Amino acid sequence: MLGREKPAGQQKAGRSAGFPKMACVGDFNVLSSSIPATKVELSVSCRNLLDRDTFSKSDPICVLYTQAIGNKEWREFGRTEVIDNTLNPDFVRKFIMDYFFEERENLRFDFYDVDSKSPNLSKHDFLGQMFCTLGEIVGSQGSRLEKTIVGIPGKKCGTVIVTAEELGCCRDSVLMQFCANKLDKKDFFGKSDPFLVFHRSNEDGSFTICHKTEVVKNTLNPVWQAFKISVRALCNGDYDRTIKVEVYDWDRDGSHDFIGEFTTSYRELSRGQSQFNVYEVINPKKKGKKKKYVNSGTVTLLSFLIETEVSFLDYIKGGTQINFTVAIDFTASNGNPSQPTSLHYMNPYQLNAYGMALKAVGEIIQDYDSDKMFPALGFGARLPPDGRVSHEFALNGNPQNPYCHGIDGVMEAYYRSLKSVQLYGPTNFAPVINHVARYAASVKDGSQYFVLLIITDGVISDMAQTKESIVNASKFPMSIIIVGVGPAEFDAMEELDGDVVRISSRGKFAERDIVQFVPFRDYIDRSGNHVLSMARLAKDVLAEIPEQFLSYMRVRGIKPSPAPPPYTPPVHVLQTQI
């Protein structure tokens, strides 16, 4: 992943000095080039490791590997320190990773008993390994995952405990207010109309605009409204990075007059209102021309308040469950499932488009659902034995209990349904949306959030009812993902995705944007790499879920539940290398 950090504690001492630097191996990844949602710190502990030393206990080290999206190659991400003579290590060195809800990050933790200074792992005794995803750790209760160590047949290798902690600087925002005194008069008939423009400096010395205040009309002593900005936007988390503030006089034609500028930093601003935060506004051109030039006025910081934003992970850590429901289109326009041209064709060698979309989205969301039981519905088919048309039937044939175990269980029920129902029509979405909305309406306390995935091949038949259902559902804790498969025109679907124009029904607008639509054909990898197609699809359709989730919690004023108390390992004496 782009911009991965080295785990803390780069310097090594004692025996581990021979090990390579912790710089992670990882090429630039086109899928991950966006700013990470957040960074998490992973802490690793083990209990009852295998004892490989004859006269003392093992001297363990943990090595973390990650897997690049689209290929199966494992790459070393980093290593902890070595701890001498213990089977119950609590490693001090952490792994700091970028976290994206919408990506599946496969992890492998390998454990070795270190016998020499050699950095070559094959020279040391293998103690076992554990596989998981980053989502699995974050989605576990209290973001604490405990799993059995495997890898040595016939041996009990102990357990590993991995805890994820979100790093704080990613989520702080600042509420600031400024005023100015005796600014230069720029307007011929009146005073100036001043506003401020904030820029953060980049690594290469250039500047990026990050905030503009409102214009205060006709004054040389303006007081601007307080504004809120994230610390990441202001200085990218670097407290000493230069922040440049420019002062302009607003002009109607857009040719705003430059009054002057000053520089500061987050660290200086964080001192709050004081003599250190009164800044002279300097106009370099005037300063160069006029010998007696002092300044073009002053800008004063009136208040500075740090606020920590609650994040998606705070709710997950506090126990909020994400409930995943899938609804599959069984209309006749998909084509006869026994024919290779059908979108529902069951190819023994590869997944069809429905299977790919279902697996891509489901495998990520299932990490956030503790019971892994997913309702799976179908619509647009004639059901046995009487051939009645249904727009809301259970794929497993049990309307009282439509739950399937895991994504594999959903896939199995989908394939079974294809053999028993007759594809028919029309394409009605409203019944399945209302089905999930009924459940979501009954749990409004923030303990659960519902995600409905609709996979469809075609043009929607009940547009008015579907719009009404979406407007109604926007009041509840739910999001809807629609994936269009096949070659059809999906123009009407774009209308449901409220990114451009908020969806409305009978004059009532949706409370939140809860629909994300994508056509699957946009994600097909030309080289035929389905793993890459699925990763791209999942990234795009799931990227909006955390913000949709937070918008519901904010509107309802729901705060995250406190996380369970952190894990405290049993006390035992450790001899750690110094």
UniProtKB/TrEMBL annotation:
The organism's taxonomic lineage, starting at the top: Eukaryota, Metazoa, Chordata, Craniata, Vertebrata
Domain C2: 16-147, 156-279
GO cellular component: plasma membrane
UniProt cross-references to PROSITE patterns, sorted A to Z: C2, VWFA
Domain VWFA: 323-524
SMART domains in the record: C2, VWA
Domain of life, per lineage: Eukaryota
Organism of this sequence: Ceyx cyanopectus
Protein's UniProt keywords contain Acetylation: no
Keywords: Calcium, Metal-binding, Phosphoprotein, Repeat
Family: Belongs to the copine family.
Protein name (record): Copine-8
Its biological purpose: Probable calcium-dependent phospholipid-binding protein that may play a role in calcium-mediated intracellular processes.
Keyword Metal-binding: yes
GO biological process: cellular response to calcium ion
